[in-house]
Amino acid sequence: MRAIALPTSELPDEVVKELHARVYTRGDQKEVRFDWRAVPALLPVWWNGRLQIVRWGNRDRAERKLPPTGWTWKATVEKGRWVGIEPEPVEIPANYVLANGVWFRVREGLRGLMVRTPSGVPAVFVVCEPATRYYRVMTRAEWMPVLIKEII
Amino acid sequence: MAGFIAHLDADAFYVSAERVRHADLANKPVGVLGNNGACVIAKSYEMKAKGVKTGTPIWDAAKMCPEGVYVKRDFYWYEVLSRKMLGIVGTFSPKLEYYSIDEFFFHAEPLRHGQQLATTATTIRDHILEATGLPVTIGIARTRTLAKLFSDTGKPFGAVAVLTRDHERELLAKMPVTEISGIGGKRADRLAPYGIRTCLDLADADGRLVKRLLTKTGHEIWMELNGEPVMPIRPERPPHQVLGRGGSLMGNVEDPKVLWAWCVRHVERLIEELRYHNVRTTTLAVEVGWKDQGWTGGTSNSPTPTDRIDELLDLARASLRRAYVTGRTATHMQVKATELRRGKGFQLSLFDKPDPKKDKLATVKAAINEKYGRFKVRTATTLYLPAVYRDPANEYDICDVRGKVCF
């Protein structure tokens, strides 16, 4: 997956204002797109009881102790490979997800793993798993984000 | 004003149903994907405007409409809304046919004395939108064939009452004959040499010629086009002559074990249907669709009607052996019970021994699945299909929506 989108109506006004360059119109509704290719790459997360916009992964390799990606395997998390940096499971709210050119609707969003960099900056990694057959056919992707309360 | 028939057709039903629960999808190009996630099975008008058609592969659709949003189908949800609509229409008309998940026919009567039928159609349409969130189009005419044709002209969100012959002729003249349900390309080809190209051409043709060219069914359509109702509204679905389950194998299947697992899955689904309709079968046919190589089939018979898994799997095994072609790649399969008998009161053969233990086992399996969900207890052979059972959306298909007249 490369991006997610949330209608502006689901984000606080000040956040929309701050992210105005990432606001797009689809149909007659405005939405904020969080794209891995955007600089900086950002994602919304529910964390500490409120919606926050945080760094998506470590694409710019700013943190040497973090992998230079925006994703992590669910199996890796379950094996405890992240334990050393005290990760926290978080929810990434999303209405639409983009994978290989296909936007698809999700019910609640994606599972994420939040960590703090040594300098204290929060960063989130999208938790992934091998794609279901349906997802693989739909997007031609071999892996998929772990969705909240949903199987595609 | 008596004697008019209404046809209700939900507008882009699957998309509208998704918009009921996801309001953000309104006014966006939306496509609902089918059982495999490969093709668009329903599209919004916004997506249609970009050239996406029903059946367009997702990878083509995504190029034609990059801003489109795709949704995985959910027949549970579509049935909930379909039955809600059905209940509402039933309050307006007691004579109602559940034609398909998104189409009904019903007897059209003014809701109050002196009301125009166009107003009646508008009132029902608006009420359905308010109560369910679903936009529908309603066409009213002298026969069901005409009503269906005219509701198509009113889409989307139309309410059309065509009550006079002149009005009928005006609209029929603009419609190609292939617009009529039941007249496809081949039948149209038979009509073309006689100059019959529009619905009005067909209506004005000699009835004997139409009967000769299109047989009895075509003649009935001709009568209906001329305002003579011969296809009644069917409040109850006529009993099934054949029950079947099957479809795509969700990819290429070469391993005979996996092919057998699919067969067992379809037999288990078929048994649910047999039990629901309280019928048993003496004949089980298995048809296999092969990649680029057509279909083959096999049939097996039992001396006694049955709905029991062990007996039907014996028949299925023999039928599949007959249908199986070594070295080919299977893509589709159908399992059909073609000789149906009432579930009770049938004659056992001289050599049949009642087997109450197996009967009880079948009853317990059905009861557990009824209580805890479909396929909670299933034949171990189906463990070869983990991906199929992992996804709850595969538990329910369009054919599982019961009581509709049409597929």
From TrEMBL, chain A:
Domain of life (superkingdom): Bacteria
Protein name in UniProt: Uncharacterized protein
UniProtKB/TrEMBL annotation, chain B:
Keyword Zinc-finger: no
Plastid in keyword set: no
Gene Ontology CC: cytosol
Domain UmuC: 5-184
Keywords: Transferase
Coiled coil: none
Any one GO biological process: DNA repair
PROSITE patterns: UMUC
SUPFAM superfamilies named in the record: DNA/RNA polymerases (SSF56672)
MF (Gene Ontology): damaged DNA binding; DNA-directed DNA polymerase activity
Pfam annotation, one family: IMS
Sequence similarity: Belongs to the DNA polymerase type-Y family.
Protein name in the entry: Nucleotidyltransferase
